[in-house]
Each structure stands twice: as C-alpha cells, then as structure tokens.
Amino acid sequence: MGKLIDAIGNTPLVEITSFRDNPKVKIFAKMEGNNPAGSVKDRAALNMIRSALERGEITKESRLIEATSGNTGIALAMIAGLYGLELELVMPSTSTRERTLTMEAYGAKVTLLDNMETCRDYAEEKAASGDYYILNQFANPDNYKAHIKSTGPEIWRDTEGKITHFVSAMGTTGTIMGCSMFLKDKNPSIQIVGCQPTEESSIPGIRRWPAAYLPKIFDASRVDRVIDIAQQDAVKRTRELVRQEGIFAGMSTGGAFHAALQVANEIDEGILVFVACDRGDRYLSSDLFG
Length: 290
What we know:
The protein has eight helices and ten strands. By secondary structure, it is α/β, with parallel strands linked by helices.
C-alpha cells in the first residue's frame, strides 16, 4: 500500500514481438501510459512541483501557470490537486477535447489559445506580472532530473545494463536529456536517438521548434542522432502498435516506434528501448485510430 504519488514510475518494459526479423535485435517499449495520470510527464510534473515546494519557491498559496500541449498539463493538474495548489494550464485550441476535460476534472483552469508558441508567451507574460509561478518545463532542470532519478535507472536495471539504443520523441526534451545523462554515464557507447516531425508534419507531443523557442534544457551534444518522422508514418505505427502488440498509445509513441524500427533495420544486434509516452484513449476524438 502507498500514496498515489508512489505509483509514479517503475513502468513495465515490454518486448515488441510482431516486427522482429533478426532475433539478435530486440525492441522494448517503456510503457509510460501506466503512470497514474497516463503519461511519462507524471515523472517531470511531480519532480517540478515537489522540488519547488522543497526549495520554498512556492507555497500552498501560490498560483501556478504552465503552457502545455497536453500530457504535462494533465500530470501537473493531478499533482497540483494532490498538493492543494491552484493551477492554470494554457493549451493550443487544436488539442483533443479529452485532454481539456481531463485537466478540468483534476481541478485545473484551462485556457485555449492559437498555438504552442502563443501559449508559452501568454504563460510567461502572466508569470512576469508576479501573480503566478511558472513551472516552465522547457527551461526547468527539474524536468530532466526526473529522468536521471527514475526513468534512466529503470531502463538500465530492466535491460540488465545491455541496452544499446535509447529512442525518444522530442518535445520539451526532458525525457531524452535526463535518460541520456544517466545512460551515457553508465555506458558512453549507448546511442541516444531523438525524433522530430518533418517540416510539413504535425505530431502531437513531438515538436520541431523554431530557434527562438528551442527548450533551454536541450543540449544537442547529448543526442547522437535525430530522425525526422513523417506524420503518416507516425499514424501507421501507432495503429500497428495497438492492433498487433496491444499497446494503446498516442502518435508520438508511433513516431518513436518508427524511429526504433529504422535503427533496428540498420544493426546486426542490439537492445533498443523506445518510450511509449502515453495512453491512446486521450486521442479517441481525433482520427488517429480511424
């Protein structure tokens, strides 16, 4: 028995079996949808809020604000509710209705604006007024430190230190930065592979940031390779995962899986781990599974 917060992390590592031609190359999915609020962002949300409270940067009377494309907002809404904190989330109006409703169910106020860049500007302006505390996942070291503390060590433990490639979507880049820091420290030869959308693609949870909005926590030297993912490939792989492997996740997971398959086809042997970022039920109102 324990508190809900204790259920964050220690997610399963599940082997992909339907797509393997070479038995010496194994692909595993890190099942982050098993977190209480349904995504990998539970880890960062907990670490950002708990660390800010421990440092005294916020108190129970503080009002928090954050721009989000969805998963971080849902996780923050859950964690803020557990700590009794007031939270406003700013999200693109193109986000699925399920995401807004879930945030509101946890007790957060949701503001919808045109796009992610506009949301970030709005949140930063409100924080600059002094009335709000911005968690700023894009520049907050507590974002990637969550993955040094938990995600990286779990992957290392569950592969018995045999992982050769780590593949992750890149949004705020917290997951790939933290896992890279931990895994490279254990074995510098582990390849860190990030994925971003092609210029013309829109993949929720994966971004190709304009230079002015590139997350400040991102360090390109910590990523060995970046693979561009076409939207149609991300959709195809997302549908294949749920129908052939029973892994019900969003499009960013499909993108990461596509990248993992690309790498797997290039090597003779290895153990690849990709992040299955969230659960697919928050995309049912879209045409992702149509």
